[in-house]
Design brief:
ARM-like; ARM_LRRK2; LRRK2 ARM repeat domain-containing protein; ARM-type_fold; repeat; mainly alpha
């Protein structure tokens, strides 16, 4: 069994805050998306990350459409956020997720 690693909201918010502070830094965006992807596999973390994380991922993917690391990590993060939650699926679509996936 995997350990339960649910983090506090303030800890999770730091990831999105870093992505917002450095929108033009590809490494920050790719790593932020990757962190969200990894942490979202925990359902509690996913709930806490979704509100701000879905939009942050969309912004990163729009900012770096040709960067495979940002795109792959962003898709993995959305997958992790959506897998257990239909509301998150709708929010991803509202954030432009379908268009970003198809670009």
């Amino acid at each position: 069994k995997e350990p339960d690693y649910a983090l506090e909201q303030s800890q999770l918010s730091t990831i999105v805050e870093a992505m917002e502070m450095f929108p033009n830094q590809v490494k920050v965006q790719a790593n932020g998306c990757a962190l969200i992807a990894n942490l979202a596999s925990n359902e509690v973390n996913g709930e806490r990350l979704a509100e701000d994380g879905i939009g942050a991922i969309a912004i990163a993917m729009k900012q770096f459409p040709n960067n495979i690391h940002v795109q792959a990590s962003g898709l993995a993060a959305w997958s992790g956020l959506a897998i257990h939650n239909n509301v998150h699926k709708v929010e991803i679509v509202k954030a432009g997720g379908i268009g970003l996936v198809l670009q």
